Amino acid sequence: MDHTVLHDLPLFNGFSSDELKDVIKKASLFRVEKGAYFYHQEDPADRAFVLLKGRVKLSQLTPDGQKIILRIAAPVQVFAIVAVLPAKEYPVSAEAIEDCEALSWSQNELQIISTAYPIFTSNAMDLMARYLQDFQTLFLQLATERVEQRLARILLRLHDLIGLDTEDGIFLDMPLTRQELAEMCGTTLSTVSRLLSSWEKNAIVRSGRAKVFIKDILALKAIADY
Amino acid sequence: MDHTVLHDLPLFNGFSSDELKDVIKKASLFRVEKGAYFYHQEDPADRAFVLLKGRVKLSQLTPDGQKIILRIAAPVQVFAIVAVLPAKEYPVSAEAIEDCEALSWSQNELQIISTAYPIFTSNAMDLMARYLQDFQTLFLQLATERVEQRLARILLRLHDLIGLDTEDGIFLDMPLTRQELAEMCGTTLSTVSRLLSSWEKNAIVRSGRAKVFIKDILALKAIADY
DNA sequence: TTTCTTCTTTGCGCTAGCACAAAGAAGAAA
DNA sequence: TTTCTTCTTTGTGCTAGCGCAAAGAAGAAA
To answer: Do B122 and B84 lie in a common domain?
Structure first.
């Protein structure tokens, strides 16, 4: 395994090449098929992951069975960093929405890494603080903005994460149903469908079955910030 | 200053009495008057606090001037733990809504404490993970529940935090306007007022100017979980 | 090919909650 | 006391978005 994959991750900020090699040696490679889960909400949080291939959907279920999607992870990103802490549970479920490969460390191994490389702990904490801040922003948006704006923001975020230039516009490179978009912005399938339809009429997006292309990113930004 | 005030804080889990004394010696005492601020959103995050007296409102402003209240802090609680990390900004503003006293450590002092007592770092991380989880729960509720349920939950949380038994029911011991309740659950003043009025008719709460008493906590719980 | 499943569109009715505003109540200040 | 400020209640009208459902489209499977 090539250690350079970890090189640009904030979590391994300040690690030398040799140190990264050491860290990688401790990792296991996980393969998870499309539709299967890395872990479920409330499982004991005993492994952290770095996604190398595929897409992971991090989602949470309400007591009454509603689902919201909190994050889409793409290569090369860390998820389940909560596993650095002892005796925690995973706060979300992690589903592979494409065939995935990920490096993974057990809590023990993370413990060893923390001890050997003190900066790792502070990197991990920094990462958490960043999540916390991101969440606050999302929370604020959910509390104060209309569905239209929130959907536009989601598409923009996905654009940055997994946007792929094509002649049809920028393709959001993952299977993406109306239902899933609804779960990402706290609304319903039909509302998302209506919005996409109306945007398609204005040539802002083009969308097919579980597919979305962005045609006019400036218009989307205008909607998001309106 | 009596070191036992810190004794039950998760942040100082695993500290001996002597160690707590040492930690307290490094602290400064801050007094902040009602209406004044400990810090503002986006200030450099250079101090963490433990509130000893009063109430603190942690809130965030949207670009267009809407406000949401993310948390109310009461004695003895930690806030602004993000200051353990270098080069961060405060993600919220902290306003004293009563005359307050708080212990405070600068980033330097926090650094020294972390070095001297390694468990401190992991306690801090644990605390952050807890906030993260709390936020996810709030986020989920905001996305999936009606205003009525969310307001009931807020009152229940305030009950646990600052509830005070009186003959008129359980008094939520802080100045608490309809406007503020609205900012806590992402709705409007008028909606909160209507809900409280209707609850008052059913003897679930009693409320006056900037005052709320809970009369029937079971009924509130039923509303929250309906 | 035909059949099935999953996903999408769209219509229709409805309602939770917003926006705005006017009037009243409770304190604080003078 | 009177005056001012802040907070609350309540009415009215409106609309964004939900819930439900039927029909259609796109693939997948057989």
So the answer is: yes
